[in-house]
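Weekly structure sync, notes
Attendees: PL (lead), two postdocs, one rotation student
Agenda item 3: pending single-chain targets
PL asked that the sequence for the first pending target be pasted directly into the notes so everyone works from the same version. It is reproduced below exactly as submitted, 301 residues in total.
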Amino acid sequence: MKNKFRHHHRTVRIENQDGRFTIQGMGKWYHHWRDPYHLLLTVPWIGFVGIVSIAYLLLNALFALAYLAGGDGLEGAQPGSFSDAFFFSVQTLASIGYGAIHPKTFYANSIVTIESIAGLLLIAVLTGLAFARFSRPIAKVLFSQFIIVANQNSQPTLMFRVANERHNFILEATAQMYLIIDEVTDEGVFMRRFHELKLLRQRTPSLVLTWTIMHPIYLDSPLYGLTADDLKQRHANISVLVSGVDETVAYNITARYVYDTANILFEHRFDDIIYTSKNGDRYFDYDRFHQVQPIESGDGG
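Predicted structure, written out during the meeting:
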């Protein structure tokens, strides 16, 4: 019975919702509190501050109870006063030391010693966590909402576009694209397969504004001959990775995006986001970055 219970809570559900491939229960088999370091690095800042504040208050409350357990050991404090013991703990843990309250017994001095060591360790850990959060490279790469399949130079091509939201240089930017799809082997074994899609241009020296990434659908392409219905029935996803070096901080950055079948459009084209003024200057209209239009018969792609 115990094994069945554990197995039940390690189950991950995969479902298809209107063409959107989703995974339910990814976090149930592994509780966040089993990896507190990762939790404190990935939780939003408001959550980080909240967790640290609650832990700080609980730690001071614990030491306040420890002081009270030793009887009247704090000079200047009301005997048995939790608030006095609590605020003395705050002063000790933060090395403030106003001097209005101080230990007067061996027991109280022993607790102060233990709390001082705990304060040093706490400050060291929180400083490291805060620095790691601030220094963690975060990519500001914008992916088009849709990925389209249309003719490009008379060749069926899978296309999407990305933009550098910071408008600085992402040096040696590279892109990778993978088709994730359900397949059944010749032996009848179901598999979730990953196929790398070869790109027309996988690398650019610098990504400053926008980049349209293309995969020509040749005979050897895993997408060759597949329709929108085929992709939907086989729960297909297209996973994209864009990486490079942020020139400002000289850190490697990586951005990931996944397109489900609801966002893969056949026989559509992107709106042009570049226009030229009368004096010859070129402008990028990012308000049209995600906009697509169906290709009417006779447009020629």
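Discussion points:
- The domain at 33-135 is CATH 1.10.287.70 (Helix Hairpins).
- Helices lie at 2-8, 36-42, 45-69, 82-93, 106-135, 228-233.
Action: rotation student to compare against the earlier draft before next sync.
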